[in-house]
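Honest question from a wet-lab person: if I give you the sequences of every part of a complex, can you actually get the arrangement of the whole thing, not just the pieces? Trying it with mine:
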Amino acid sequence: MINVALPKGRLGEKVYKMFALCGYECPSILENNRKLIFENEEKGVRYFWVKPSDVSIYVERGAADIGVCGKDILLEYEPDVYELLDLNIGKCRMAVAGKKDFYDDNTQTLKVATKFVNVAKKYYSGKCRDIDIIKLNGSIEIAPILGLSDVIVDIVETGTTLKENNLEVKEEIFPISARLIANKSSFKFKTEEIEKIAEFLAEQVKDND
Ligand code: PRP
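Yes, you can. This is the full assembly:
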């Protein structure tokens, strides 16, 4: 049995469809209910819907053998897992954003609001820029508007949230896409099965290109 942690939401549904096309379908997952665990015994697969930022925790600790999460999560938390494949979906970018009239003249400590504390620290320490981190858990875009921070470090997908709040991208930090990850000991003991899934998925990634 392969245990798969899927990120709850639109991305997870896309990922499930890719797994189903590889022969690991579990039709009950598409039923509209609030169940979080779905199993297809015949196909030897069990899916869990988890919060996207928790996928790597389930996989790192072996509660799931494999999972799919964004590169942002891997760079922020650096979980001890294998990154097997770039699925080339869920594409967005990590960026610094701020009010249109904000310009960083480097004279004061920069106030940075973010969910991605480690990413922000690493980025600014690479530029030798002093920052004051303000850790938030969501709706980060409000911070510069209310003067809580000078800038934010956050995910930008379509750019709509920034635009509708009169903010703009100041610097791009890195591109993001969804990655297939595996627990290290699962990979050792279920190598064949996990590699088979990774190969099937890689074929679909090629077809999507
Ligand atoms: C993310 C991110 C931005 C938004 C960007 O938020 O933090 O707020 O998506 O998307 P856009 O460029 O397409 O507008 P999410 O929906 O994860 O909610 P959050 O407020 O909890 O971070």
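Two things worth pointing out. The first helix runs from residue 10 to 21. The helical segments are 10-21, 55-60, 71-77, 117-126, 142-145, 160-164, 184-189, 191-208.
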